[in-house]
Every structure is written in C-alpha cells, then in structure tokens.
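Q: What residues go here?
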C-alpha cells in the first residue's frame, strides 16, 4: 500500500499556500492556532503538528507569549525535493498552470543505463515519453520519462500523455509509486536541444535524475526532469546529528 499523506502534511501545504497568497514577509505574524483551525476546519492538534513541521523546516519561528512569525520567504519550493511529487502536482502547489508539449512517445529497447535502473531483461521494451512543460507559454521544465512497456494498459490518448504521468500510472494502470532515489546536478542543454524546445542555450538547468519504485520496491519509472535554474529554487532541510564525533 502507498504511504498516506497525513492530515498535518496536507494542512502544512495549505498554510504554505496561505503565506504565499497573502504575501507575508519575514517577521510577519502568522495567524494563531485557533484562527488556522477555523480557517482550514482542522483540529488544533493537526494545526499544531503542521506548524511544528514548519518551525522544524525553518519557515516559521515561535516567540513565547507572542506567537509564530515568518522566518523566511514562504516558498512552496521548500518541500518539492523532500516530498515526492509529479511535475503537475509541483506546479499546482506553486500556484501556476502548466501547458504541455508532447515531443514523442516512443517504443524502443532500453539503453544499458535504463535497463539497469529498471531491472529489465534482454527482451523487455520501454516507452519513452519526451515532453516540455511551459508556464505562460514559456518553457520551464523539460522531461524524459522511461518506463517498461508491460506496464501500459490499453492505448492512452494524446490527452493522457499531456497530463500527470504518475496519475495515469496509478488510476489507469494500477501502478502506484511510493518512493524514489534521485540524483540532483546542474547542467546545460545541448545547443540542438535548446533550439528544439526554444530556449536560450545559455540557460542553467537543475536536472533531477530519478528512479521511482512501487510499494513492492520494484523500479517502475526512470526519469530525467530538467528545471530551469533561473525559474526554480529548491530548498531542503539538512540536520546535523546532536552526537559529536570524538
């Protein structure tokens, strides 16, 4: 079974969206637990846990007797790396709508790297889905997704390939992705590819190379998502153990 997202995590996302929409700045006060409970129709313990998570992630800080305040810019980018989301879900969480250009849907043998990542046999074939995602007609994400052909149920139409691949896999193919292993690095697109998707070749990109697994720890999707470095900033909380090495 996939890991469920808790009520506190959902409420945390709602609070982050509220902070963004209200344009609160560092040092601005956050509504009280009681106010947030009424606003989001959530229990006080759920609100308290969501706020505790935001304090742990350094989005908020608490002053005893005065309340909670914004510690930094309340960007929803905060947990886009730590939380496994589809590109469509990421965009929705950031408050913008994506349009999709499907460049290709190809059936082919896997490369050696893809075969190793997906644990494929010599006779297995893969589907390669190549897309560009744009915000306000400007390309912001270039994505290549590779998955075993045997997972596909039926013949998806063009609209299906334009939407969330994770949602398609879950609702139509019975494949639920629960976790992933990812590598993040800075790259530039080749001049040929940049020209094809109509972006300057000088742009920096953040490339997320990821193998996605189902609940049985089987690799079901290998993806390379390129996010424009001038449009995206990803934040990740890093904690140092309290133990001190001798």
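A:
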């Amino acid at each position: 079974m996939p890991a469920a997202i808790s009520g506190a995590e959902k409420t945390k996302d709602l609070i982050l969206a509220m902070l963004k929409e209200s344009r609160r700045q560092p040092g601005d006060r956050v509504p009280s637990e009681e106010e947030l409970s009424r606003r989001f129709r959530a229990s006080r313990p759920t609100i308290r846990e969501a706020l505790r998570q935001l304090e742990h992630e350094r989005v908020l800080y608490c002053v005893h007797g005065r309340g909670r305040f914004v510690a930094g810019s309340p960007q929803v980018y905060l947990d886009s790396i730590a939380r496994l989301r589809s590109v469509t879900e990421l965009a929705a969480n950031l408050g913008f709508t994506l349009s999709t250009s499907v460049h290709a849907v190809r059936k082919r043998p896997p490369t050696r790297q893809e075969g190793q990542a997906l644990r494929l046999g010599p006779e297995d074939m893969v589907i390669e889905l190549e897309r560009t995602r744009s915000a306000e007609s400007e390309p912001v994400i270039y994505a290549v997704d590779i998955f075993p052909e045997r997972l596909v149920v039926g013949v998806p139409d063009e609209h299906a390939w334009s939407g969330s691949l994770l949602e398609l896999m879950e609702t139509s193919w019975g494949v639920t992705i629960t976790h992933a292993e990812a590598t993040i690095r800075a790259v530039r697109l080749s001049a040929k590819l940049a020209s094809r998707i109509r972006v300057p070749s000088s742009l920096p990109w953040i490339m997320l190379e990821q193998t996605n697994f189902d609940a049985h720890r089987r690799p079901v999707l290998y993806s390379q998502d390129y996010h424009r470095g001038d449009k995206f900033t990803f934040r990740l909380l890093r904690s140092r153990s309290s133990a001190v090495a001798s």
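A: Context that may help when evaluating the design: The beta strands are 60-63, 67-70, 98-108, 126-135, 138-148, 177-187, 205-214, 219-228. The chain is about 30% helix and 30% strand.
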